Task: structure prediction
Amino acid sequence: MKKLTIISSVILSSLLILTGCGSNSSKKSNVTSKVKVVKQSSSKEKQKSVTKKKSGVLWNNDKDSRLEDFMKQWGEAMDQTYTKYDGTNNIQTASGMNYPQDFGSATVDGHDVSMAWNKKGTGKNDYNVVAIYNYNKSSSSSITYAFTLADGEPIVLVNESSGNNWSETKNKSLKENFVNIFDGKATHVEKPKVSSSSSAKSSGSTEATEDLGEGREGYVTTPEAMRGTWYSKGEDGMKKLVISEHEITLISADGETNHAVLYKRTKDTPSDISESERQSKEEWRSAGNIGANGISMRGWYQLQGGGEHFFTHEEEINGQKVPLVLYGFGANDLTDYVYYPSEDLANKQSDAKYDDINYKF
Result:
């Protein structure tokens, strides 16, 4: 009987131990499960919060309506009529582009970028276009503005060329008012300062699309045949040249960019200029037309040296007439580089020399 009692006690103790182990194991499993659920829930809530914040602070119908009102007033002040992209039908420009369809092949200052229509401005593109406005100046030329958000920052891009290269507008009114609309502030439209020289305006060197002043009578206009993207292949690699109506961008083989805005200078170049002032006008050029097919330009505060020059040219290559742009720098009109209309042609003709071109080397 005593032996039976001992055996019963041993069995009962074993059962209690096993029950305790099972209970602890169950509690541990439940705790682990709850931690995972909390983490997942926290991640989802955070993601919802970020999405809600993005959609609430970028672009909406109210801002779009305010921009439309501003562009109507601004266009009237400029004596220009702008057409707005309606969100469905492509805008066809007089220079032959269709937007937003052609954003897929757009460049900015000659660089490949991702640029696309995105109504809310929250896309993953380099430039999310929230509004497009176009003005056809003639049957073959146009001014197109793309109001964009780049990493949430409002930037106005302009294309005045016959190609698909864009650059940030220099127009102070457009830049400041787009920021004001984006930030929910008031807008203000002023009449532009336009040169009184009718001869300059008729020749196309003065444009009423930018705030001038500081010795600038107006823009200098490049020959139409010169506009577009051009390529030159040398020992250092492939160089690129992008020319629009009033701007020229040189891009070296290693990607260094030299951007120039062409102005007609009305004041003598001062000799005593601070470094900060010089840097603030780094992209400004004092420019002039050389006949009907050339452009020359010098640094805004350049006192010495011959500057840079560009000429349109034509050569017969493989039985076809091909347009070229000749580029040179220095005091004479000799050619340093020949630019072709395509990379393929630049590669094939990299060693070519033409009898009717005066080369520097």
